[in-house]
Amino acid sequence: MAIISIPELPTCDHAVDPCNRYQGGKEFKPYPTADYTRIGYDDTDRSDALFRALVEIAADAWEAECARYVAKHGDVGTCVAGAGIAINYRAPRCRRYERKVILHPPHTSGQGASTWEHSVDTIVSWLKDHGIDCFYHCGYMD
After folding, report:
1. Rounded mean pLDDT of 10-34?
2. Which one, 5, 18, 59, 75, has the greatest CB density within 10 A?
3. For the chain, domain boundaries
4. Radius of gyration of the chain from Cα atoms?
5. C-alpha span between 131 and 20 (Å, rounded)
6. Model-level pTM?
7. Residue 136: what pLDDT?
8. What is residue 109's three-state secondary structure?
């Protein structure tokens, strides 16, 4: 896993003041007989200022890391469409949650999937550490 520098938000005691940890989202079962739950988001969560700020910080860090990777290794990997970091999203008036990409690979990284996949685990874990339950969707080969 690549070591990248992600700007830190101000630190705080999460037990007293969760200032840099997103507390939104709702638990749901992915199917009726599931014995586990996941966290899903709706438009209210996605428009929250803290949610958007955390995604923007992650996007800037991911773009910087991908630019360094391309400068060192070039544009490598297959061309894919629809890749990115996604959340479980419920649209208005819908009952089911679906995958929604909230953070597409940086445009400066080129077309090769290898230019951004080397650092995606770090970005996903950083977002999860800050309260956004997300995952990487690899997209479809173009």
Report:
1. 64
2. 59
3. 36-141
4. 16
5. 9
6. 0.80
7. 93
8. helix
> Mind listing the pLDDT tens digit for each residue in 62-88?
998 888 888 888 888 888 888 899 999
> CA-CA distances (angstroms) from residue 81 to 23, 84, 122?
31, 9, 21
Q: Tell me the CA distances in angstroms from 62 to 19, 31, 59, 70, 87, one per residue in order.
A: 23, 33, 5, 12, 17
Tell me the C-alpha distance between 138 and 60, whole Å: 20
State which amino acid sits at residue 133: D
d(CA 129, CA 30): 22
Q: Which residue has the tokens 């999937």?
A: 113
**Number of residues that make up the chain:** 142
Helix (H) or strand (E) holding 102: strand 98-103
Give CA–CA dist 40/17, Å, rounded: 23
